[in-house]
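User: Please predict structures.

Assistant: First:
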Amino acid sequence: MDNLWKETQALKAVRDSMGSTDFPRKVFTKVFTQDIERLRSMEDMWKTRKPPKPLDFDEVSRQAMEVGPEKSRQDQVVWTLAENFAVFKDSLRRLSDRLNELKANAEPGSPPILTFDKDDVDTLDFVAATANLRSIIFGIDTRSKFDIKRKHSMDLTELYADWFQKWQAISSLL
């Protein structure tokens, strides 16, 4: 029960930071550092397989300093760690802006909801970058945004959509 309380508080802190300059750091640290460190601490899971490697926001941010948001337009290229990070941050900003706009225009008692659509550039960028960052953590091959979009396998669709659902979970708490 104590762990559930901690997780709830961590998600609340992330949610409360939405719209701030610290929001990308908090989302990234929660999903790609803290959650991965918690997984690594389950030592029995890693007796027969390679454990995941958490990512550090500051380190990846330094690597991505020269990468601009236009990288997301290169959809047939498999992005590097730094490029995925840059697309993650930019798409997170775009989705946050969209959610804030929806929230401002929502009817009272009707919370705004973002939905995943493979033809929506903002959500596809977020899903592609987030899935690729997670793949890097687990030593799984990454894919281009084009491949992610055209892939119709249920397994991959569920994998990529799972990360968008995490975003929705954070945003629905607003």
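Second:
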Amino acid sequence: MRMCKTISFNSWNNYFKAPFGALKVNEGADIKVIINDESVYSINLIIEKEDENLNCYEVKRINLEKEDDKVYKCKIEPLLDSGIYYYYFEVEVNRYGQDQKLFYGKVKQNGEACEYSFENLNKYLEEPKNLESLDTGVHKYVDDLRNQMTHRYSIAITSLSENYNLRAMPDTLYRIAKDYNMVMSKLCEIINIIVEDTNSSNVKEKIANFDYN
């Protein structure tokens, strides 16, 4: 899932982020990013805040200025409210005439930033349904099938519509199994990333003390 390095950034290094560490209320920060790929044409810093339900929402989006051919920079204006904030970089590149959007966040072991790439998963989820192929547009096929079944109460139904007939079970079961395997494998990867990024004592304590009522 993680691939390095279109950009370089290390929050533990004062060259990239100053001051070091968590910001105080009414304290700003200077951010610098080094680009290692000439295809980069835009970088945004996305700042999110965690609410009382442990959900994050975007509070700031800052476009970095190009200082020179290798360095982009920006200034985080003072944050007026105390709380837990997270940030990541949204990097736009043009490769082989195609625009792409990459996402960079901090790794657990140190302050370095690495790419979080879900491009293949997004392509799989959005691939158009193809009734002529068992291996193309599988998720869209299963998603449409599920949507048509939402008003049904029995799996014994043999015909859902003119497009779906559960008598053709082998093909349908193959697609369902393939979709389940693909999505679950990607969800496991995402969950592992979340576990790494939240594996700190203060976050564990917040989760343990969260009021679910």
